[in-house]
Amino acid sequence: MTNPAADVKNADVVFITGSNTTEAHPVIGAYVKQAVNRGTKLIVADPIRIPLAEIADVYLQIKPGTSLALSNGMLNVIFAEGLEDKEYIGKNTAGAEALRELVAEYTPERTAEICGVKADDIARAARMYASAGAASILYCMGITQHVNGVNNVYGLSNLALSTGNLGKPGSGVNPLRGQNNVQGACDMGALPDVYTGYQQVGSPDAQKKFEDAWGAKLSGEKGMPSTVALPAVLEDKVKMLYVVGENPAVSDADNQHAIKAFKKAFLVVQDIFLTETAELADVVLPAACFAEKDGTFTNSERCVQRVRKAVPPKGMADWEIFVKLMNLMGFRCHYDEPEDIFNEMAALTPSYAGITYSRIEENNGLNWPCPANGHPGTPILHVGAPIKGKGEFKAVEWVPSQEAQMEGFPVLLTTSRLQHQYHTRTMTGKTRAIEEHCPGSFVQINPKDAESWSIEDGETVRVSSPRGSVEARAIVTDGLKEGTASMPFHWADSANVLTNAEDLDPVSKIPGLKLAGVKIEKL
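^ thats the sequence. predicted structure below, dont judge the formating
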């Protein structure tokens, strides 16, 4: 996030898209409600009529997969009506003319046809966002988990840059992370193409720095993202998989295809419970949970915080397992405690260089970048100007998803999260009260669709895609448009049996988890 979460309370306008914030991020959802109560205007764009849509000043119930078209349509209005921040664009950006030329084709009328909303509402949203003294964008995986997810984010970045909504309170482009410490894991290099702090694997200078520090030769080649590694197993290009704290047998797109890869590879799973993925493993390494270990978490707003052991571990902390394995595999290393590892990382990572355990304690957390001891941290990014010098506009066309054009699968299915179940239910599925309240999967459909398919509320139906089929309880709701449906992904026999793992975003290699073409049949 470019801005702290609570900073939405300083916004004149909040634009939420691709995020059911009150369900998936209830604390931030509460901040949004507080902001609205204080007079902040709210724009919501989502295929599902989420709870925040009920208090929105403008609600755009767009078709799944049309977010980029909406951004381009709003930009069309902003440029056509002279609502852009010309001074900010001139000083701080590059590529504005190419963007202006592209979005000229996305008139409110054309965009309305693509997105399935009213042209007047698109124009209202654009004027509201551009006219605000400070406007904040909140988004989540409804934006990123598409085969054009990177372009979707470019569209939101274009909105912020065109209106100067960066580097000041109440503004910014703010992605909401999907799980605890996702930001911290990425910061620590748990990605195939970077070292810590997003230092590129392909950089000779970065490679040499880490080789000198670790006394080992490192490969300069980028690794594979998991969405590429699993198909590579089936092609005999990858022999072993090591899964840590993740349950991809449930959460991966086309999870039945993923399970085939897990069964073929030599599979090691390191986790606190015997998950669906761990049940397929050749070796299971029992780790410690958050309450059994010391260290740091870095949250969505880049704030590095301490976590402390509350109870003695029954297993070993993740870092202890890693150190033992490294030594067994021939890399000699030793750490007495997690703080030793943190200090080594901070010495090699410019954005963390000024952060220590004692400073975290003194400041109740520090936001990176914090490049030197005594630096106060950076709660708001891009103050004064974009960090990289010039913010780049990206002129990107909207292209319809292939999933929305498949013969025989006319319904657009989007996946969702529930407040009472967490991710793949590794923990919430073992909590009796939660299971009683939210015991199984379901599919939500529009009343007119239900009538045409002779489906009654509560009936069991079959939902099918080219990848497979599942049975689920039908919930008839007017929170969805005709021709769209929604399923939660938390269960193994639910939405991710149906999603497509084959088509990936060309940059991020993320599959289209948020849009699948399906058919729904009465049993």
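The chain has three domains: 5-176, 182-223+287-367, 402-522.
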